Amino acid sequence: MISLLLLFITFSLSKQCSEYTTNEIDTVDSAFECIESIETTEKENNDIITGLKYYLEAYVFKDILKNPPQPSFSNNYYEKVDIDAELNKINTKTTSMYDFYSQIKNLIISTRDGHLAFNVDKDLNKPNSELTNFFYFLPFEINIDNDKKMYLIPRKSLGGIPIDVPEIDDNQNIAVKTINGEDPFNIIREFGKKYLGLKCPHAQFTEARSAISFGSLSDTPLTKEYLNTPITITWENGESVTINYSIFKLSTPNKSLKELLQGEEVKQGIKPKLTPEEIKSRKEIGKRMKTKQGIIERYKSDDNNVGCLLTDNKINTFFIVSFDPKDAYVKSYEDTISKCIDLFDSNKYPIQVIFPKNGGGYGYLSRWVEKIISPYDDVDFIGSLRVSDFTEVIIKTGMGTGLYDPETCEVREKGINPQTLGEWYTKPKIIKYGDVEHKVSQPSLDKGGMMKLMKNPRKPTEIVVYTDSFCYSACSLVTKGLKEWGGAILVGYDGDPNGKDEEFEVGLSPTSVIGLNEIDKDNIFTQYGYELGISVTETYRFNYEYNESIPREFLTDMIDERVNIYSDPDIIDIFEEETKKIIEKYQTKCNPKNKRLVKRDEKCDKEINIEHGHGGYECGDNGEWSTKCVLAYCDDGYKFDYINNKCIEDVCVYPPTDDGTPSMTVNLVMIIIGIITLIL
């Protein structure tokens, strides 16, 4: 009788999903009554695991992860993951969708590749889409000042529902001393390490700083136990408070996290309290931004995600929040970049480029930006695909028509859906990582098109590029390219205030990714309400002998300089002051670990005496510019062969004829177009 009564009480107190009729803030236990009631079946689970095993054969890093090459500074920087073995461990007998889904998400996270993604697809409106309306949150956001102190900014409301934690409100101008008795930054580090699929600890920290206090349970399926663990905060004035996570249930189906947060920012202005000097500075910046031509009104707006301005301090500022404009705004995005080029060409002042949590996007836009910053960079990526049955399907659906033979510049596959693939794929390369065999297609070129460039390009020592290490995918293609070609001074900001500078990467995941639905619309995951993204192309260093064995995904590219900037990047003058210092420093000093960044000088052209080559002074081991002249870059139509220290003809400009001699046809066409343009 007592057992039946307890069962009745438990059932009567449980929260059914249908009971959520409006936006609601709930306890973790109550919300999980609904979340854990979303069911799956053993058949569904087995179907999904079988599907993952098939489709992930095309995952280009599947072999390498079993025994990844490590950088010189660590023996375990890249984690070892045997994907098939881990898939076999997943409990397919569970009937809890959240339990099953979390196991897969944890495996995906362990690869530390944000391109590899398995998510609930809310647009399919399957039973599991209910999960996308649940958000975890803490009653504050985290701000870090430029003196490496943590402050908690109260979250006043969410979804129109007030939130009141007086202790946080009263202490928002007091630095946090400890969280759970430890260094307050530890909780961010541990969250990033456990729940975010990013390789670099600084990138983990940058993302975790916001994700720890607010996120979607479908993106980050935290356990009920973690969410129920109390968090004790102690400020430097001795006051303390113990809080817990809460759950926000969104009543409007399929409304995005971004839309929800934007609404709250407008209503409550979630920003750190500023000193009078900072307020005055920000107001002055706001006035300048409103009066300058060519800058978008708010650089984080949905339409552009890009903007620029020339400040009163005579620094050209280029903001790029994303390379992924909404489809309706692609033309607007391109127009904005074109106006930025005109602005930079109107003066000779230095340029600072800021990538604030740039999550990537369209590759052609990132190539364009790199060529604007550093016009002599080669942006024709070199890459390979993993040999598998599903990779062959991907190629035959059209990917092969976008890949080119690096020796001839001929397209790999001239038509979509070929009956058989060429020898570039059927006679693959085999690379060994210890006892692990990695079978990939022969290297191919992924070509970048030419767009409007600057008429008055700056020297690399006149360009400062700021990265928070989160700079992802298409963004990292820019920063890694600039680092490899010596096209700019790469500077780290944000990240872990007390992390190691030598572990601060310029960006992550320089690979191409496909969404499974683009290739196979009737795949097994869509039937159950999921979507899958796969990294399919590994890219290599620009070695024109095409014999690289380690993809750039597993090659660390580190910053040249580090600055203590943790404020929002729209406080432009903070960046300006650092840019002026760095530009001045690089007049005489440099980063001895980066020999690719050269102080360009025409005086070196004669001394190096390399056909089509231009020179500059190499950075000395003492951190100062030497008097040694080295090859710095090559003329248009030629590529800088760094390994052999020479300029070689770009085969796509000078394609070989049948007898093997170079042809000038393409180049002549380019010259003719140039002449016509001049006449017009």
Automatic annotation (TrEMBL):
Keywords: Signal. The keyword Signal applies. This is Tail specific protease domain-containing protein. Residues 1-19 form the signal peptide.
